[in-house]
Write a structure and sequence with these properties.
361 residues; alpha+beta; three-stranded antiparallel β-sheet; 11 helices; five-stranded mixed β-sheet
């Protein structure tokens, strides 16, 4: 299936003016029962989903950072040593604003198409470099094209970037039961804080908003930290802040009865040197569906599946509810800090510029 974002390639994403560019067509298939669930890049999913839909699981996150991909003949250069006027390709306002703020001498231009198309445009000489999601390149097996993975201090990433999410109907307890074991705890905590941050700001593709989160063991507890930023389109104005919270635990003390028997079923894709030993959560999910096809036998276990949503994410039954609420609140608090420092005014200027460019185009 293709989406509006796949079909309209001659207009920059913010100018298309549709919040669900890469999800609307797929969600229609969900709502009319054509499919039972859809796998998305989480960063493409709005923080508020259509009524009746939910994110049933998020798999373990890949590297969420952005990657610099330089053209082969100038691969020894860096962003700071590229000649003035060098063209950097990206379709993201977030990347554009941060690049313009740090490297005003470079020319940032829109680039559309799938990864293969974008890399061909780079190789043809249309661009000096591209900024792309590291996770997308690694999933395609093209990590050798990466010149440098940009640290978060240089380029904050998009909300949810690097994570795959499974969207389904919120009343489909059979599918929710199947998905429950794959809902990765650490990833869930991080992306919930990020989505709550974005939802409170009211941002999306129409504003340069970036984040960085970390969840680490701290003594006998866990510390979740989140940094968020909002930029003007030229990158000259930015509003940023960092907050953190500490939890005594992030997993329920007793193993949830729907938890996988092996810890690796919700792990990220891992490929060995010979490419013949792949651990893939979607493949594991396919096995469960095939095994249970025609005899799902989910009546008893589905009683444990709740339909309470947090920024579109179904409640994760492996995480204490108070931890989920605190993760959501952490994102809200960070957004409110930025709002009190003028973030909404910065975002409004950008949105007005986009509207004016649409009128004049």
């Amino acid at each position: 299936m293709t989406t509006l974002g796949d079909r309209v390639l001659d207009i920059s994403l913010p100018k298309i003016g549709e919040k669900s560019l890469f999800t609307k067509d797929l969600e229609e298939a969900l709502r009319n029962n054509t499919v039972d669930f859809v796998v998305h890049s989480l960063k493409d999913l709005p923080t508020t989903l259509p009524d009746g839909l939910a994110i049933g699981a998020v798999f373990e996150r890949e590297d969420p950072r952005d990657a610099l991909v330089l053209r082969e003949d100038i691969k020894e250069t860096t962003l700071s040593t590229l000649p003035a006027g060098s063209i950097i390709g990206t379709s993201s306002l977030r990347r554009t604003a941060q690049l313009r703020g740090s490297y005003p001498e470079l020319s940032v231009q829109d680039v559309r198409g799938n990864l293969n198309t974008r890399l061909k445009k780079l190789d043809s000489g249309a661009y000096s470099a591209l900024l792309l999601a590291t996770a997308g390149l690694e999933r395609m097996g093209w990590e050798k094209r990466i010149t440098k993975i940009l640290p978060c201090s240089e380029m904050m990433y998009a909300v949810g970037q690097g994570a795959l999410a499974v969207e389904c109907r919120s009343d489909n307890t059979e599918i929710l039961t199947l998905l429950s074991p794959f809902n990765h705890v650490e990833t869930y905590c991080r992306v919930l804080a990020e989505r709550s941050f974005l939802k409170t700001l009211g941002g999306g593709c129409s504003a340069p908003v970036g984040v960085s989160t970390k969840l680490k063991a701290f003594d006998s507890s866990w510390k979740l930290s989140i940094t968020g930023g909002v930029w003007s389109l030229d990158g000259k104005t930015k509003v940023t802040d960092t907050l953190e919270n500490t939890f005594t635990q992030i997993k329920k003390s007793q193993k949830h009865k729907l938890s996988p028997t092996e810890d690796n079923v919700n792990k990220k894709i891992k490929i060995d040197d010979n490419n013949d030993n792949i651990i893939h959560p979607l493949a594991e999910l396919d096995k469960i569906i095939e095994k249970n096809n025609g005899n799902s036998n989910c009546e008893e276990s589905s009683k444990d599946i709740t339909c309470r949503l947090f920024c579109g994410l179904i409640e994760n039954n492996n995480i204490p509810l108070d931890v989920i609420v605190k993760c959501e609140d952490l994102g809200k608090d960070l957004a409110n800090n930025l709002i009190s420092n003028g973030a909404l005014d910065v975002m409004k200027v950008t949105q007005d510029l986009i509207r004016n460019s649409i009128k004049n185009s």
